[in-house]
Amino acid sequence: MPIMFSYPAAALLFLLLLSGAATAVHSIGVNYGTLGDNLPPPAQVAQFIKDKTTIDRIKIFDANPDILRAFANTGILVAITVPNGEIPSLTDPKSALRWVTDHIKPFYPDTHINHLLVGNEVLHWGPQELIDNLVSAMSSLHNALIQEGITDIAVTTAHSLAILEPSDLPSLARFRPGWDVGVLAPMLEFHRQTKTPFMVNPYPYFMYSPEKADMALFRPNKGFFDKYTRRTYGNLFDFLLDSVYMAMKKLKYADVEIVVGETGWASLGEVFEQPKCSVPNAADYNGGLVKHFDAGKGTPLMPKKRFVTYIFGLFNENQKTGSLAEKNFGLFRPDFSPVYDVGIMRAGGAPNKPIKDIPAGPALTVGKKYCVPKSDASDAALESNINYVCGQGIDCAPIKPGGSCFKPDTLKAHASYVMNAYYHAKGLDDFNCDFSGSAIIISTDPSNASCKYVS
């Protein structure tokens, strides 16, 4: 319902907006990834976002203390993420409380943490142990926050749209069997009871074809008609959100809020990724998304609803694995110059050269990274890590007798090699070097004369 202001309050609000002193209530967020060896320090990033853009929230894929410190007292909302591997241990209330004490309380409320994500796309990537423990861990962390007197951090988790069965129409969408009543219904009940949002990552990018280009990129088109709901779709973003809504509705959870955790478009790609990946396409998609968001029209099935939305991503990240496209989802280059204009810069905010007048502060870890066991990791944990990694399709032949990394023949050495191989195979995301708290990321190459670690 609309908020009613008295005349003095309305006048004050108008003056604040006119002067640019107030951050827009309905701004847009961005995912702040850190997989680059040329990225600016968090203090510069925080100042840039605050002073030069209309972005009012960020989402990070861990709980990086340098980033949390940098965004203190900026007024920018920060969503943080529990590493996937920590999920099973966080079903224990004491472990959940310790996680909140260690990773949130030192920074809150100076840093305005608004969302706590328990893992990222867990149902998509698995393994089953994480899926089975996900809702319980979310509940434990919610209770831990309440126990600490923190009531304004919403616990959620981000889902890829692999949670949906393939369908040609939003009206026919439903969650995948097994996940629907086994995982998603209990999770949606948790969201309903705690008044927290269901977070999804809709990417029209992955539905692109030359025939669907205009629909995918918010360009003018004839629209797509859903004969069962008698609604017409002018873009694939709305198509995907209404598909999620219909799947929720079929489980009787249409009242739960939806938040968009990731969506974006690559501005550069390999030859085989053309013509999809280009600056004009990325500008049309993300620029169209911002305009669509600002218009507040909602979707055909959820009219006039404005969804909290985080664009992926803030920077191009040169250390991401995969194709060239994976490294080029950023709105900005590492020197803060825009890759293209999407309408989120404040007047005079776009720098023509690298920003140098902002104190650097501590830099993020850069260069090569390796995932190895912590010094106090138990033999049981190491053995479990080896079994898990080798069961995920990672080549474990080097640690077998006769292999280049069989020597030294110790559990820790073998676990170290395969854990690092897994970490690199999964794209160097920090949450893939967790292993239930038994691993740590280092910058010193652990290779020896015969055993060369993936780097």
Automatic annotation (TrEMBL):
Location relative to the cell: Cell membrane
Could you tell me what reaction this enzyme catalyses? Hydrolysis of (1->3)-beta-D-glucosidic linkages in (1->3)-beta-D-glucans
Q: Does the keyword Repressor apply?
A: no
Q: How does it sit in the membrane?
A: Lipid-anchor; GPI-anchor
The protein's predominant localisation is: membrane
Nucleotidyltransferase keyword on record: no
Q: What is its EC number?
A: 3.2.1.39
Spell out the family assignment given in the record's similarity comment. Belongs to the glycosyl hydrolase 17 family.
Query: What name has this protein been given in UniProt?
Result: glucan endo-1,3-beta-D-glucosidase
